[in-house]
Amino acid sequence: MINPEQYEACDVMTDKDASIFLPKAYKLMDWCRGTKVLDYGCGPGRRAFTYILPQVEKFEGKMYSLDISEDMVTYAQKTYPHPAVQYACGDIMGDFPWKNVKFDNILSFYVLHFIEDIR
């Protein structure tokens, strides 16, 4: 799997995309007090911490950050801890840790190119 520190060092290239796309996406989503957001494919956590968490905090919500890589999740937990964020390792198609949580919004940013079998 990819080294979280190396991934994060190169990941700054996606900041421009995130800063443009995510505010537009937020306008298309429903937000209310206590909103629960799933960040699927959180990677090392910086993008969600920088761009998604401030939106979640506006609504006193909670963010659930999931990645299939244990190394990425461990790095995110250590580097970007926050009381409104819960990190876990898992897969939306199988080992999903929050089966009983109803999410109000789901975001997945720069994830599809890592999926081997898109079907």
Report on the structure:
The structure is a single chain. The protein is 37% helix and 16% strand. It is built from 4 helices and 4 strands; from the N terminus they run ααβαβαββ. It is α/β, with parallel strands linked by helices and 119 residues long. It has helices at 4-11, 15-27, 46-58, 70-79, and strands at residues 36-40, 62-67, 85-89, 105-107. The model has no long low-confidence stretch (mean pLDDT 89).
Q: Indicate the proportion of strand residues.
A: 15-25%
The total count of strands amounts to: 4
CATH topological fold name of one domain? Rossmann fold
Head-to-tail CA distance between termini = 21 Å
So, the CATH homologous superfamily of one domain? Vaccinia Virus protein VP39
Quaternary structure = single chain
The assigned CATH architecture of one domain is 3-Layer(aba) Sandwich
Biggest sheet: strand arrangement: 3-2-1-4
| Helix share, percent | 25-40%
Largest sheet: 4 strands, parallel
Weakly predicted, low-confidence segments = none
Q: For the residues shown, what is the average pLDDT? A: 89
Number of helices: 4
The structure class reads: alpha/beta
Query: N-to-C SSE series?
Result: HHEHEHEE
Structural Rg: 14 Å
CATH class of one domain: Alpha Beta
